[in-house]
Design brief:
single chain, 334 residues, alpha+beta, 6-stranded mixed sheet, 5-stranded mixed sheet
């Protein structure tokens, strides 16, 4: 026989285990707050990268060297937000997406149609260990440029470049380990003193020449700034920064109105270490043209900049025997 108290308990209805109405929707907005915070941090680094201090290990310059790659962080956060089904993280991701698009989205757009006052230029660090300088020269000539700037020229390879490029580029100037080849006459060539303090061995990595183009005279600068080193203490860029400052002063003192700078600057255009140049010269409006290292390009450290002219587009050319990828740019003279 079932006791009366048991019959009363059995007769009671079981408590409802259904979630209150709207609880699921509230959970979607509560979860993923850490992801949302990371999204806001990524947006802050993109927009305020110049606020990251350079005093300790030059962290700011290191961040700026790879700034476009923060777009991959956004992609990873987006995937995680979908897995977490986090509405707040997805909304927060609009901030870094907008920031990245503002900074780099224009580089993905197609370039403008070639203008009537255009020069095509090629910049390439050919590497002093390049085993095929003749093949490299033919590859650069194949892009059909008006100017070719080369760095890391060594005596044996220099003779090969001169011989291979002579027919299409009858004018050339070499100073130290940098050189300029041109379809148009060159005058006023001289070395540039951009050697940082502390370097005592022979070091000549700068050249200035006047190019007599069909559209007027242009001052062409070729430069190879000191290399960077990533160490346990951070980024070692003091010599590069000093050389950039000296080069910026030379460009400022240039009397010709139009200037084109080509070179291995060992820095991206976002890197504050190149501010003495990027504050005075226009940079490419279209194209990423990642140039280093050739095996898996991560950054464009080979640059084309201009004054009183517009670098309308820059693109990477096929790899050569160098550890750098050559880049070609279209420059519209003003």
């Amino acid at each position: 026989m079932v006791p009366p108290w048991a019959r009363r308990r059995a007769g009671r209805s079981a408590p409802s285990r259904e979630a209150p109405a709207g609880a699921g929707r509230r959970a979607v907005w509560r979860r993923g707050r850490v992801l949302a915070g990371l999204a806001v941090l990524t947006a802050g680094l993109l927009v305020f990268h110049r606020a990251v201090p350079n005093s300790a290990g030059r962290v700011g310059s290191l961040l700026e060297a790879f700034l476009p790659w923060l777009g991959l962080v956004v992609v990873v956060l987006f995937a995680l937000a979908l897995l977490r089904r986090s509405a707040v993280a997805l909304v927060a991701l609009l901030l870094p997406v907008a920031a990245w698009t503002y900074l780099f989205g224009g580089l993905l757009l197609p370039g403008a149609a070639p203008g009537a006052r255009q020069l095509v230029v090629v910049q390439h660090n050919v590497s002093d260990e390049n085993a095929d300088p003749a093949g490299t020269a033919r590859a650069l000539d194949g892009a059909g440029p008006d100017l070719i700037a080369l760095e890391e020229l060594v005596p044996l390879a220099l003779a090969v470049y001169e011989r291979t490029l002579a027919a299409a580029y009858p004018y050339h100037e070499v100073r130290g380990t940098v050189g300029l080849w041109s379809r148009h006459p060159l005058t006023g060539a001289r070395a540039l003193d951009i050697k940082p303090r502390g370097i005592t061995e022979p070091w000549n990595r700068g050249l200035r020449a006047e190019v007599h183009t069909p559209h007027g005279r242009v001052a062409a600068y070729v430069a190879h700034l000191p290399s960077l080193r990533v160490r346990a203490s951070g980024l070692a860029s003091a010599r590069r920064d000093e050389s950039a400052r000296l080069l910026g002063e030379a460009v400022t003192a240039e009397e010709l109105r139009t200037v084109i700078l080509l070179g291995d600057l060992n820095g991206t255009v976002e890197d504050r270490g190149l501010a003495p140049l990027t504050s005075r010269l226009n940079v490419a409006e279209r194209g990423f043209a990642l140039s280093f290292p050739a095996a898996f390009p991560l950054a464009r450290i080979d640059q084309v900049m201009a004054r009183a002219a517009t670098v309308t587009e820059i693109r990477a050319l096929p790899a050569t025997g160098s550890d750098h990828v050559p880049v070609a740019a279209r420059v519209e003279l003003g």
